[in-house]
Amino acid sequence: MNQTITCYLLYGDKELSDKNIKHFTESPYVKDICLLTNQHIPETTLPENCRVLPYGSFDSTSALTQIAAHTSTPYLLIYTKPQILQWGEMALERMIDYLSAPECGMVYADHYQIAGGKQTNAPVIDYQFGSLRDDFNFGSVLLFNTSRLKEAAGRITSEYNFAGLYDLRLKLSQNADLVHINEYLYSEVENDTRKSGEKIFDYVDPKNRNRQIEMEAACTEHLKEIGGYLKPEFKQ
């Protein structure tokens, strides 16, 4: 089971990113690490098993298709935050155990959040076939079955700048299970300290309009593919 995972991390602050790189490099399960960043980073300054993809986030379809194409290990891990990640004991082992089920395409887990030096529980909920929210909370660690992800990526027909990961998740859910592990497996550092009442109105912020339009298009395409789309026909 050793070296079965390729990890994709956001490269932000150098000090924090270097700690994550070291942390992942020390895991016996990690074969390769790929950093997503628009910064210029000489690969000669990185560990031997670490490379760079020139994308600033996991939002675009282009980034996700490149990730699928660059992965040769059985499992693929995406960490969606640029902050330090702290693994719990046997965390990757538990995630791989769940992902080894043939019908499983992705796993995610309960976790802890650390903000202002305080640790709080951050449980997540089970994903169901009708879970369409683009902001469904999976936590920041997503571990995929690579062959399942490649199959889903091969069915992508639209190019998105913002809805790439959402579109891929919907495609994956059509033929595979997205499994919630009801265990606290890691800690993530919370950098958005706004109150929840402020966060829920992000979708009406004018600067997010293009993003929301793409999310709606990806959701509509998904509903058409699974036979759940109702054409909006109205009487005058």
Query: How far from one another are the termini?
Result: 62 Å
The overall strand count is: 9
* Unreliably modeled segments: none
Taken in chain order, the helices and strands follow as EHEEHEEHEEEHHEHH
General shape = globular
Q: Biggest sheet, open or closed, and with what strands and sense?
A: 9 strands, mixed
Secondary structure layout plus pairing:
Elements: E1 5-10, H1 14-25, E2 30-36, E3 50-53, H2 61-70, E4 75-79, E5 85-87, H3 91-99, E6 104-115, E7 118-122, E8 141-145, H4 146-153, H5 164-175, E9 177-189, H6 196-199, H7 209-225
How would you sum up this structure in a few lines?
31% of the residues lie in helices and 25% in strands. By secondary structure, it is α/β, with parallel strands linked by helices.
